[in-house]
Design goal:
- The complex is a heterodimer of chains A (163) and B (103).
- With 163 residues, chain A is mainly α.
- Helix content of chain A is 72%, strand content 0%.
- Chain B has 103 residues and is mainly alpha-helical.
- Classes of the chains: A mainly alpha (163), B mainly alpha (103).
- At the A-B interface, α1, α2, α3, α4 and α5 of A face α1, α2 and α3 of B.
C-alpha cells in the first residue's frame, strides 16, 4: 500500500514539475523545477527497486546537471528577458504533435496495463557491476572515451579567446 | 490499486510529451536543453520499469539506463559549452536569432 501511494505522489510531482519546466517564463524557476522533477524521478527509481540507479540519478542529475543548468542560466541573458515571451508561435502545432505521439504511446502502454508481478526486492549493484565488467565491457570503455571527449570538447568550446 | 507496468509507462509517456512540447516551443536555448533532459528521464523510467516487471532477475535495463545517464551528462556539458560560446558571439539566448548560416 505504501509503495502505491508513494508512486502516485511521486508521479504527480514529476508530471507537474515537468509541465512547469516547459511553461514557466522565468528560466531560473525552470531550472529549479527541473531539479524537483529529476529528484522525483530518482524517487520513482527507488520505488522500482533500482537502488544503484537511484543513487546515480541523484548524484549525476540532481547534483550535477541541474546545478550546471542553474549556473548557465545565471550566466546567460539579461534582466529584460523576464519580460519577453519564452515560447514561439508554434504551440498549436506542437500540441498536435504531442497529441499524435501521446495516442501512439498510450496504445503501446495499455498493452502492459495488467502486468503487476512484483519483483523480489534486493540490492542490484552486484548484478550491474558484473554486467558492466562482463557482457557490456566494451560499451563501458566506450562511455569513458565519450566522457573524455566531452570534457575536452567543453574546454575547447568554452575557452574564451584573449584579444 | 497497486501500480502496474502500464502506469509506469504512462508516466514515462507524459514526461516525454512534456519534453517534446518544450523542445518544440521554447525560444530559450537552455530551455530546449532542459526539455531534452526530460525526454532522457522518460526513457530511463521506461527502461527501469521494464527491468523491474518483465525481467526481475537481470539488470540489463538498469545498466542501459546508467549508460543513458552518462551520455546525457556528456551531452549537456558539451551543449552548455556550445551555448556559452554562441552567447558570446550572438549576444542572445533565443534560437530564432541563431541564423548566421541562413542564406
Amino acid at each position: 500500500m505504501i509503495p502505491a501511494i508513494a508512486f502516485y505522489l511521486l508521479a504527480a510531482v514529476t508530471v507537474a514539475s515537468a509541465v512547469l519546466v516547459v511553461t514557466l517564463r522565468n528560466t531560473v524557476h525552470c531550472a529549479l523545477a527541473l531539479g524537483i522533477c529529476l529528484a522525483s524521478v530518482a524517487g520513482i527509481f527507488a520505488n522500482l527497486g533500482a537502488d544503484f540507479l537511484f543513487a546515480g540519478q541523484l548524484l549525476i542529475y540532481v547534483g550535477g546537471i541541474a546545478v550546471l543548468m542553474t549556473f548557465v542560466v545565471m550566466l546567460l541573458g539579461r534582466a529584460s528577458d523576464m519580460h519577453n515571451r519564452q515560447v514561439n508561435q508554434q504551440w498549436a502545432a506542437a500540441l498536435l504533435i504531442c497529441a499524435i505521439t501521446g495516442t501512439g504511446l498510450w496504445h503501446a502502454a495499455r498493452v502492459y496495463l495488467h502486468v503487476t508481478k512484483a519483483a523480489a526486492g534486493g540490492p542490484t549493484t552486484r548484478a550491474i557491476g558484473l554486467l558492466m565488467l562482463g557482457d557490456l565491457a566494451i560499451p563501458f570503455e566506450l562511455i569513458s572515451l565519450v566522457l573524455i571527449a566531452a570534457l575536452l570538447g567543453a574546454i575547447f568550446f568554452s575557452h574564451a579567446e584573449r584579444p | 490499486m497497486t501500480p502496474s507496468l502500464g502506469h509506469y509507462l504512462a508516466l514515462g509517456g507524459l514526461l516525454f510529451l512534456a519534453g517534446i512540447f518544450g523542445a518544440l516551443t521554447r525560444r530559450n536555448v537552455v530551455g530546449i536543453l532542459m526539455s531534452i533532459e526530460l525526454m532522457f528521464n522518460a526513457a530511463n523510467i521506461n527502461l527501469a520499469a521494464f527491468n523491474h516487471f518483465l525481467h526481475p532477475a537481470g539488470a540489463l535495463g538498469m545498466t542501459m539506463a546508467l549508460f543513458i545517464i552518462a551520455v546525457a551528462a556528456a551531452e549537456v556539458v558539451v551543449g552548455l559549452a556550445l551555448v556559452l560560446a554562441i552567447y558570446r558571439n550572438a549576444n542572445s539566448v533565443y534560437v530564432e536569432e541563431f541564423n548566421l548560416l541562413k542564406g
